[in-house]
Structures are given as structure tokens and as C-alpha cells.
Amino acid sequence: MGRPVIRTLAGVVALALVGGLAVLGWQASRSTAATTAQAAARPAPSVIVSPPLLRRVVDQREYAGRFEPTASVEIRARVSGYLQSIGFEDGQIVQAGQTLFTIDPRPYQAAVAEAQAQLSSARAQRDLSDLELRRAEQLAGTSAVSRSTLDQRRQQKQGADAAFELAQAGLTRAQLDLDFTEIKAPISGRVSNRRVDAGSLVSDTGTLLTTVVALDPIYFVFDMSERDFVAYERAVKSGDLRSIRDRGVPIEARLQDDEGWPYQGTMSFVDNRLESGAGTIRARAVLANADLFITPGQFGRLRLASSGERDALLVPETALLTDQASRIVLTVAEDDTLRATPVRLGARLPGGLRVVESGLKAEDRVVINGLLRGRAGQKVVPQAGEIAPAATAMVN
Questions:
Q1: Are residues 78 and 197 in the same domain?
Q2: Do residue 91 and residue 111 come from a single domain?
Q3: Distance between CA 181 and CA 175 in Å, rounded?
């Protein structure tokens, strides 16, 4: 009696489940159909398209480097003595010829006075020997003076002349030593701090007093890879570029926090060999620093033309998308279908433009606005737009 009742209840439950599933399936199919109908009824999105911008550009390469002074001088004492005074403030700008240090000049003034006295004595002795020689030459014709006496007078005259020249040299040396008590700046630039204080004893063995560096113009020193150097040499050989060894090749530079390239200059030196360990060659540019804003030792960047003018296709940076490890742009096919087109990008241009080295043709329709309104494979309504040209075509 119990078993027939259980079978009856199980059958009822099974029928209820089948009925519920059927209802759910019907509702799902109805919802899918409605969604499909809504998608079919939705209009195709509108996007702004434009062909790539064709411009003449000049490729440039960037290099990191350091600013260095065009001249750096160590100021050292050339005579010994007590330091009497210091004629500058630490770190100030000094001019060529400005007195930086003064060594007590009194011992050297006395040496000059002594040398002048010795010179006067030598002059008097020279004049006397000259007079005696002339007198002996006059008397030699009358046999009043012997031949040997005449030879002695001539020898005395030569000795007196030599002594006079020696005294002159001594005075010159003493005057130089006196001049060296005033230590002057050999170049214009910024002076470092003093290494000794007034009252200190300095020696002529090379006591370092301070240093001066020239700031205007200023050097930018950088290392160029062997690959880049060979590429430049080949471009020069083919006539596309001037040799970077030629003075006058233009460059642009900036500090680490600069936007743009505010400093202009020219190449001034390329070394005569590559460093075998690093595979680089040392190069240098010179640029104006009239406001003395750049300080030697600062890091910066330099850019240098690496090609002649050439045609290039440009797209806005805002039209670029990333697909995993590659960069793409959205283009519209002839049937108005969106497609993802991989591109190989080149350098950046001012004005938010980017050089496209490969992947695009001049007649392609590139989506420049409305990138998020559709996806690859979807129909769109393209509307003609225009890519605004950059203000300049120098590659960054």
C-alpha cells in the first residue's frame, strides 16, 4: 500500500519539474529574441574618420648626458707668503682679471727694490767699462796703451754688459713675483668656495685656493652608441646628413624637468675612437647659457637630426589603442566595418601627433573620434573629419 503512494508522488514531482523547465526555456527564448530584435533595431554608431596626415618630417635621436663647463681652472698660489685678503664671496660670478686673493706683497716689494739697485749698479759698471774701452781704443793708435790693455778693456766691457743683462733679468723675475702676489681670475665664470682663509700661509708648491668654471657658453657631453654612430656615418656618406664632426650641426637640449627643447646649440666635438668596453663614442655640443641658469654637472637630454627630410604618415596620439603587446588603430573598411589595424610607431611630434612607420596606407580611413562607440567587426557610420597638422615637423 505504501509503495504505490510513493510512486505516485514521485511522478507528480517529476511532471512539475518538467513543466517548470519548459516555462523557463520559453521565457529565455522569448528574452533572447527580444534582445536580438532590439540589437537589430539599434542604429550603427557614428565615428569620425580621416586619412593619415602626410607630412615632411626629420627624424631625431635623443641622448642623455651631462652639462660641463667650457673651461675649468684651479686657482693656485705661484709665490709663498701669508694670505692678506680675499676679494670675492664664495660662489659669486667673477670677471676675468678680477683680483681673487692677495698675498702679503712687502717681501716681494723689497726684492724688487733690491733688484732695481742691482740693475743701477750694473748699469754704472757697464757705462764705466764702455768709457774705458773707448779711451783705450783712442790711445791704442799712439802706442800709449798696450795691446793687452786694450784686450782687457774689451773683456771688461763684455762682462759689464752680461752683468747688466743679469740684473735686468733679476728685476724682471722680482717684478713677476710681486705681480703674483695678486692672484687674478683668468676667466669669467662662477668661483667656488675659498679653500684657505686670510692669514694662512700659502706656498708656491701649488696650494689650491679655489676653482673657477666658465658658464657661458656651456658644453653638453654625451655618449653615442656604436650603432648610432655607424648609422650617422652611413647617412653622411650617402649625402643625407652633414657630418656630426662638422662644427655647426644644430642640436637642441633640455633639462630633466623641461617641457620642449628651450636650448639650441651646435655640435663641437666627436672623439677619435670608441670605448671598447662600453661600445660608445664620446661627443660634445656647445650651447648658449646667457642667463647662467644651467649649472655644470646637471643632467639633461639632447636631440640630434638622424635623417634628412622624408614623407611620413601621422596620426593623433588619441587615435592609438593597445592590444596586449601591440599598438593598433581602428580603421573603417569599404563596407563600413570597423577593423583593428596593428601599426609600428615612430617618433612623437609636437601637437600630439605620432609617426606611423608601417601598418597604414595613405588612403586608409582612421577613426580619430568615437573609438569607444564600436568594436572591431561592427558596422559604423563614418563621418569625415580632419587631423590637425602639428605646429612643426621636427621629430621628438
A1: yes
A2: no
A3: 10
Beta carbons of 344 and 328 less than 8 angstroms apart: no
Provide the residue range defining the domain that includes 246: 61-69+215-305
Q: What's the rounded Cα separation, in Å, for the pair 137 and 153? A: 9
Clarify whether residues 231 and 326 are in a common domain. Answer: no
Low-confidence ranges of the chain (pLDDT < 70): 1-41, 137, 140-141, 143-146, 150-151, 389-396
Q: Are residues 145 and 194 in the same domain?
A: no
Residue 101 has a pLDDT of 95
Judge residue 24's burial from the number of C-beta atoms within 10 Å of its C-beta, 0-12 exposed, 13-18 middle, 19 or more buried.
exposed
109 and 174 part of one domain: yes
- pTM (predicted TM-score): 0.69
**Which residues, in sequence order, are bridge partners of residue 84?**
none
Let me know the angle formed at the C-alpha of 246 by 241 and 249, rounded to the nearest 5 degrees.
Answer: 60
- Asked, for residue 227, whether it belongs to a domain, the answer is yes
Query: In whole angstroms, what is the distance from residue 265 CA to residue 269 CA?
Result: 12
> Per residue in 191-213, pLDDT tens?
999 999 999 999 888 789 999 99
Q: Are 316 and 254 in contact, with CB atoms under 8 Å apart?
A: no
- pLDDT tens, position by position, 228-273: 999 889 888 888 888 888 888 999 999 998 888 899 999 999 999 9
Residue 179 and residue 108 in contact, taking contact as beta carbons nearer than 8 Å: no
Looking at the domain assignment, is residue 26 inside a domain? no
Residue 354 sits in a domain whose CATH number is 2.40.420.20
Same domain, 78 and 196: yes
